[in-house]
Amino acid sequence: MKITLFPFFHMKIKFVLAVFVWALMVFGQHSFAQEMIDGVYHISSVEDLKSFAERVNNGENTANAILTCDLDLDNKPHTPIGSNESPYMGHFDGGTHSISNIIIYNTSLSQLGFFGTIGGGCVIENLIIASGRIQGNKACAGLVGACRGNAGSFIKIINCGNNARVNCRAENAAGILGCNYDGHTTVRIINCYNTGIIQGAKESASISGWTGSAPGSILENCYNSGKVSGMDNGKNLCRSGDDKTTITNCYDVTIGITKTQGNKSLRQADKKSGKLCHLLGAAYTQNLGEDDLPTFGRKAVTHVTGDMYINEGDTIGVLELKDGSTQLSLDRGCILDSLSYTREFSEGGVWEPLFVPFDSKTDDWKGMTIAKLYDIRLANNAEQQNEIEFVVLKDGETVRQNTPYIIMAKEAGTYTVETTQPTIFDPDIKPVWCANTEMVFNLNGNYQPTKIEPYTHAVLDGETVEPLKTSKTLVPMRWYLSSETRTQHNMVQAPSLTLKIYTNDVTGIHEVMPNVQIGEDWYTLDGKTVKEPQKGILIKNGRKYLYK
């Protein structure tokens, strides 16, 4: 029997087949489901990464994304994110995660990297290219092959690193940015590093092969430790038009090559010790004893003194502080097994300034007396003196770190304070201040030699705090006084202040040491004039004194 299909059945079958083919074409391109939260694509797998690259390269080039985990690309070819036709102009946050085993190999193509081409407004941050190889014709880098944009546009690359090997058959090989094509885009590369081998035929550099000539371009807090070939006249960090890119706090710790950019004074040992990490700034971290170089996402590094660097929160052994000469750089806290502080007194019975980075008890300061700041009072009439008042600490009281005190030894000699398991905190030295109706007085401490200016700054000199007549460099572990107006906060000349010492804690009652002569200006609490000495609370010029 012969079956004949009506024409409309043929049309229906053709329509269904057409829809099926269209679905394969469209959904086949974006076959990987990708999570989007608050307008940001979350990349949590290699499949997500491929899908995101396809989106960008097919025109969705302002999409924002965040990497939620480390990704191993397993040495399989990677398609760069962004192209010359569709440059990436979104915000990509790597979440301080890494991309390992990246492979891009095509010597006939240019503008290759994890990102191929990016455009004005693009921000890339917190991403590490941990390993792999990128090889192409020109403008190749571990992170970004090239950028393009109009005059006035900018791109930012922040907190990124490259350890992949980069090879260009021609020019503009680099670790972070291969080339700023057209040269109009302002390039800002901040807190970035290269540790990979960079090879180019010419015009190559460790961080960027060409940052262009746009005003405002910067390279800041960056370093290189990778070997670079194909440099242009020793420009080891970056090349730019008329050297318009400002290079600040950058380092190159390679050896055996001519370098004209960055700080070149570091030793090889400074890479592992923590010194390089500390100099680069707070964005960098390094597990000392494990990491050969600074990176991101590890432990913060603290500089204690000299060549001593530790990880934040680590306990170190013995720290010996010599007053006036040991220089401390305490940007983060650390714990010590024990600490000793040695101070030399040329004579006894004389008050000197004290400012130390550790807590202790007065009982630890054997043979010495310590007093804390109480108030600063300006004279109301010609019979009064400007005074800076201190109260002697009692037995068992705490001598607090980063706080101005005065100290006196019973007799001349060398004195040592020892304490176990002290914590030295980030000083973040905030001045202790006193104020009256007209002026504010700040007492500033220092842990490194500090140049202080005349007239507006004053230092303790015997029994008075006197304004300087010439500039002076203050030795470590001292304090100085500065003055400013209460309303406008303008610096003004510091007054001369007479030292006044009280032996007890004061709450409205001032105990004079030594006893004073009683005269007509003294009154009892009920307002009667005191003509003969008597024990108790007396009042003079509106202030209470305990007379013994």
SSE map:
Elements: H1 7-29, E1 35-37, E2 40-43, H2 46-57, E3 64-67, E4 71-72, E5 91-100, E6 102-106, E7 115-119, E8 123-129, E9 132-136, E10 140-141, E11 144-148, E12 154-162, E13 165-168, E14 173-174, E15 177-180, E16 186-194, E17 198-204, E18 218-220, E19 223-224, E20 228-231, E21 246-248, E22 251-252, H3 269-273, H4 275-280, E23 301-305, E24 308-311, E25 315-322, E26 334-345, E27 352-354, E28 360-361, E29 368-377, E30 387-392, E31 398-399, E32 405-409, E33 413-420, E34 423-424, E35 432-435, E36 439-446, E37 450-452, E38 457-461, E39 464-467, E40 472-474, E41 478-485, E42 491-492, E43 497-502, E44 509-510, E45 536-540, E46 543-547
Parallel strand pairs: 2-3, 3-5, 4-5, 5-8, 6-9, 7-11, 8-12, 9-13, 10-14, 11-15, 12-16, 13-17, 16-18, 16-19, 17-20, 18-21, 19-22, 25-26, 30-43, 44-46
Antiparallel strand pairs: 1-2, 23-24, 26-33, 26-34, 27-32, 28-31, 29-30, 29-32, 35-36, 36-41, 37-40, 38-39, 38-41, 39-43, 41-42, 45-46
Describe this structure in words.
It contains four helices and 46 strands. The chain is mostly beta strands and 548 residues long. Strands 1, 2, 3, 4, 5, 8, 12, 16, 18, 19, 21 and 22 form a twelve-stranded mixed β-sheet that branches. Strands 27, 29, 30, 32, 35, 36, 38, 39, 41, 42 and 43 form an eleven-stranded mixed β-sheet that branches. Residues 1-6, 19-32 and 508-520 have low confidence and may be disordered.
